[in-house]
Amino acid sequence: MPADNRQSLGKAGEDLACVELERRGYAILERRFRSRFGEIDIVATVHDEIVFVEVKARAGDEFGGGAAAVTPWKQRRIAQMAVDYLSRHRLHDRPCRFDVVTVDLDGPEPRVEVFARAFDAPF
Questions:
Q1: Which pLDDT does position 60 carry in this prediction?
Q2: Are 72 and 51 in contact (CB under 8 A)?
Q3: Residue 78 contacts residue 55 (beta carbons within 8 Å)
Q4: CA triplet 51, 52, 57: central angle to 5 degrees?
Q5: Which of 65, 74, 94, 120 is most deeply packed, by most CB within 10 A?
Q6: CA 68, CA 90: separation in Å to the nearest integer?
Q7: Lowest mean pLDDT among 25-34, 85-94, 114-123
Q8: Do 9 and 59 touch, CB atoms closer than 8 A?
Q9: The pTM is what?
Q10: Nearest residue to 78 (alpha-carbon basis) of 34, 21, 114
Q11: CA-CA distance, 71 to 121, in Å (whole number)?
């Protein structure tokens, strides 16, 4: 898939993820937070927790489901970015968690699934 198509797919997935998260009561703080470790798709709050959200959008299932793409290596990278975010924003005392949102754009209607507390960070 060309980079432009992949970026468009990612943006569409993030937009749909934000709509679903807001519907569930999340407040979106930031999108595409960049640090030296990479990028966190969405940073939000819900019930006094900071939530770091990884969005995986798919237009088909030839590479497996979106949740399968959040490997242990990717989880460590997201955790490093989360520590950086918490440090920059002086939020060390706030509880946090990691969610994964999968967006399947293959059918007639997009299917969005939210996996709260999808993985435990090593910190």
A1: 67
A2: no
A3: no
A4: 120
A5: 74
A6: 32
A7: 114-123
A8: yes
A9: 0.87
A10: 34
A11: 12
**Burial of residue 115 (number of CB atoms within 10 Å: 0-12, 13-18, 19+):** middle
Token pair for residue 89? 């924003």
DSSP string, the chain: --HHHHHHHHHHHHHHHHHHHHHTT-EEEEEEEEETTEEEEEEEEETTEEEEEEEEEESSSTT--TGGG--HHHHHHHHHHHHHHHHHTT-TTS-EEEEEEEEE-SSSS-EEEEETT------
Query: How many Cα atoms are found within 13 Å in the side-chain-facing hemisphere of 13?
Result: 27
Pick from 114, 34, 44, 42: nearest CA to 80: 34
**Could you report the per-residue pLDDT of 10-59, keeping only the tens digit for each?**
788 999 999 999 999 999 999 999 988 899 999 999 999 999 999 998 87
Q: Which residue has the tokens 């949740």?
A: 67
| Residue with tokens 């934000």, as numbered in its chain | 18
Query: Could you state, in order of their start, the residue ranges of all structural domains in the chain?
Result: 3-115
3-115: CATH topology: Trna Endonuclease; Chain: A, domain 1 (3.40.1350)
